[in-house]
Amino acid sequence: MATYDRVRDLPLEIESYRLEGLEVQASPEFNRLTTVIHLDGGGHEGVGEDVTYSSEEQLALRAEGATLPFAGSHTLDSFSRLLEGLALFPSEPEMAAFLDYRRWAYESAALDLALRQAGLSLAEAIGREPRPVNFVVSLRIEKPPALDPIPRLLERYPALRFKLDPTSEWDDTLVAALAETGAVDTTDLKGAYKGTPVDQPGDPELYRLVAEGFPSAWIEDPDLNDETDPVLAPHRDRITWDAPIHSVADITGLPFAPKTLNFKPSRFGSVQRLFDGYDYCAEHGIAVYGGGQWELGPGRGQIQHLASLFHPTTPNDVAPAAFNIHRNDPPPGLPTSPLEPQPSATGFRWGDR
Q: What is the C-alpha to C-alpha distance for residues 186 and 206, in angstroms, rounded to an integer?
């Protein structure tokens, strides 16, 4: 049975919903806003988190308020189809990807509420067992060739693993020093990002440096073109994708069959597309690791929850949020990898907010 078929017909009663704004000044340049969706019905509450990156879009959502026509009796699937016909933004969003981010916020809240109303945990509903979750910490070295903050992080948390964002400022010395730590699991080339603050154009010299300097690390989202493709051709088994993956159709449309993929649930938008993606990868022997979107609230626990059920042993980019918020100087005492399972007794939640 398809994984989505195990939850699609769950009854869902919605009486009302409300929005809760969250905000963290993550750095002088980055004020992170997210919005928690609270769906209420039958004495239960379901939560999801809108991870749209634009502060203006987040503020516009909160100003508009809870105006969408959700009240009534649904199934999880009929609610998903209702969302397809609704304007989730007051006007065309700044980036098309934001449409999926917001839809995921509503769909994840609906999944949480439907499961709670049914008295089921997600694990029970889909027939899987939560397992301890491996995680890596994702960051970009802001002032290469300096190593900061890697040594400081490893001094406090010696077993920490990393997913790093190489840039054209990297050199042989920096790569050698990073490789010597033995702590780099994934290099994210950001070549599939267009029109964002973290764009990194395809750079054949950088790609050669990274591929040869980290011979065991995954190589994520390269910009493959006439110059870069020959450089990475010998390393295709390590090439993985993140930003282009929103559905099974995106997987089958890749230039070559991948060995592994990064699944960010918010990129898929709907529960069905995400679960179909998990099923496709399982059937075709494609490994999956999870990714996050700077969640500040329940969305972080939800991606850890999914990792525990579908891909607990891979280098999941789902570290506790404090490693993002305090990425240059995380406080002592944070959970270390692997994260022990913390599923809620019912619903789609993980640990405390």
A: 15
Would you say 108 and 76 are in contact if contact means Cβ atoms under 8 Å apart?
no
Nearest to 165 by CA among 155, 151, 154, 150: 150
**Tokens coding 30:** 């980055």
In the numeric block, the tokens 């704004």 are attached to: 21
For residue 232, the tally of other CB atoms under 10 A from its CB is: 20
Q: Which of 140, 51, 137 is nearest to 319 (CA)?
A: 137
Residues of the chain with CATH 3.30.390.10: 4-125
Give me the mean pLDDT over the 214-240 stretch: 97
**Distance between CA atoms of 309 and 311, rounded to whole angstroms?**
6
Q: 4-125 sits in which CATH class?
A: alpha beta
Q: What's the rounded Cα separation, in Å, for the pair 4 and 319?
A: 26
Cβ–Cβ under 8 Å, residues 101 and 111: no
Tokens 């919903």 belong to which residue? 17
In DSSP terms, 218 is beta-bridged to 186
Tokens of residue 129, six digits: 């067992």
Specify the domain boundaries for CATH 3.20.20.120 within the chain. Answer: 128-325
Q: Do the bridges between strand 16-27 and strand 11-14 make them parallel or antiparallel, or are there none, so unpaired? A: unpaired
Pairing of strands 72-75, 184-188: unpaired
**Which amino acid, residue 162?**
F
82 DSSP assignment:
H
Residue 235 pLDDT > 90: yes
Cα gap 158→257, rounded to integer Å: 35
Q: Does domain 128-325 have CATH number 3.20.20.120?
A: yes
Phi/psi at 22 (nearest 5 deg)?
-120, 150
Query: 58-89 pLDDT, tens per residue?
Result: 999 999 999 999 999 999 999 999 999 999 99
Return d(Cα 313, Cα 238) in angstroms, integer.
17
